[in-house]
Specification:
Chains A, B: Keywords: DNA-binding. Chains A, B: GO terms for molecular function: DNA-binding transcription factor activity; transcription cis-regulatory region binding. Chains A, B: InterPro entries: DNA-bd_HTH_TetR-type_CS, Homeodomain-like_sf, HTH-type_TetR-like_transc_reg, HTH_TetR, PsrA_TetR_C, Tet_transcr_reg_TetR-rel_C_sf. 2 copies of one chain form a homodimer. With 204 residues, chain A is mainly alpha-helical. The first copy, chain A, has 2 domains: 1-48, Homeodomain-like (Arc Repressor Mutant, subunit A), CATH 1.10.10; 58-201, Tetracycline Repressor, domain 2. Chain A has 9 helices and no strands. Chain A has helices at 2-22, 29-36, 42-47, 50-77, 84-100, 107-116, 120-144, 150-168, 182-201. The relative contact order of chain A is 0.10. Chain A binds chain B through residues 20-21, 23, 25-26, 109, 112-113, 115-119, 151-152, 154-156, 158-167, 169, 171-172, 174, 192-193, 195-200, 202-204, and chain B through 20-23, 25-26, 109, 112-113, 115-118, 151-152, 154-156, 158-167, 169, 171-172, 174, 192-193, 195-200, 202-204. Chain A binds a DNA duplex (30 and 30 nucleotides) through helix 1 and helix 3.
DNA sequence: TGTGAAATCAAACGATCGTTTGAGCATACG
DNA sequence: CGTATGCTCAAACGATCGTTTGATTTCACA
């Protein structure tokens, strides 16, 4: 029972990388277990099925992402002088942090794939585990943008979500130049995303 | 040779719908040919392979989409008083038209999937055949936004692309209310997307 | 040290995948 | 009319898929 935790982690990490690279259907359990260095039957033994493995891959990262986002939001939700940029920062910075530490750099790609998939069960799983976070952020956005109707607000949050998911899935990510540190580059990226999203959200 | 054109079209239409619904790997040729009402072997006979079919699905829609976009861009590229909103309109409106007529409503979902896939051969195909369109629009955007550095411009165009692809893939599409016509609703949607994108692009 | 549960392993299961085959059908042309 | 050509069809190909099985190994604990 000691090495089982190790095996499960190895499978989750290999699965995350392969799902990001080849998709949920494109990555086979044989490729996956070979990359993880474990036996083929280990997936079904530890996770029950491939579908369950997919959900566990999401759970591992989303749990900490949600926790960090809500913690960041709590810091500013009470303050009357909080700005739209602050709320966006609470949403964006935890995702960028996740991309650069904890080996979760590939997770945003997996998330982008999940958005592109219109598979109902996966959508429902994401909505169940993720919905309350978006609801809290929506409330804060509504407070910052009182001139927007509810319909307009939903529209723009959806557009922001699309832009950020697209960008953070590593598509157009601009490479860090060798003369800037990793932390600096991350902060520049965050500033870039926030500036764009804030301008789009507060359009007249 | 008469019915072949009919069969090819039936396959392309069924493939577009199934690719949008289940993805390129998730949609099998057996589901696909059954939905099209043709024999299983018809795909390999008419298209050579499944990969070729995928490319043909893109070709059919992207050829007309690019033609319309470039035609719209040509109308304003010479005019000195053209606005950023005009350029965005030339980019967005043809895509919305495609979504609502010609049965291409599902194509934007297919395109969103292609963006999520990091498959190199598919990316190369899209870049080779349709990169020149993005290059022309980028030139116009640069003309409208002279205060942006080249790096910032690329960043923001990428973010706009993500937002529009996400929105037009039918994710958060707000349903048309029964008391507005289809044309009116389309124009409202276009205005919404353009307003958001213009504000994001011209952020300070 | 002996024992039983947990974990790993090679092997095989049936199902489904993309593709190929060769016979049969249709139709246009000499 | 005969024939060549383009097309459709059922059937089968080998490969690979997710999953299951039963034996074997590992290891904490009595």
């Amino acid at each position: 029972m000691n090495s089982s935790a190790n095996t499960k982690e190895r499978i989750l990490t290999a699965a995350e990388a392969l799902f990001a690279q080849r998709g949920f259907e494109g990555a086979s359990l044989r490729q996956l277990t070979a990359a993880a260095g474990v036996n083929l039957a280990a997936v079904n033994y530890h996770f029950g099925s491939k579908d369950n493995l997919v959900e566990e891959v999401f759970k591992r990262r989303l749990d900490q992402l949600n926790a960090r986002r809500l913690a960041a939001l709590r810091l500013i939700s009470g303050q009357p002088d909080a700005t739209l940029e602050d709320v966006l920062g609470a949403f964006i910075r935890p995702a960028l942090d996740l991309s650069h530490d904890g080996g979760g750099g590939l997770f945003m790609r997996v998330l982008a794939r999940a958005f592109a998939e219109h598979d109902d069960s996966l959508r429902k799983f994401l909505s169940d585990n993720y919905g309350h976070v978006m609801r809290q952020f929506t409330t804060e956005f509504a407070r910052m943008l009182p001139h927007l109707s509810k319909e307009e607000l939903y529209w723009r949050i959806d557009l922001v979500t699309g832009a950020l998911t697209h960008a953070m899935s590593g598509f157009g990510i601009i490479q860090r130049k060798s003369d800037v540190s990793e932390v600096t580059h991350r902060e520049q990226t965050a500033a870039h995303l926030i500036r764009f999203a804030a301008a789009g959200l507060s359009a007249p």
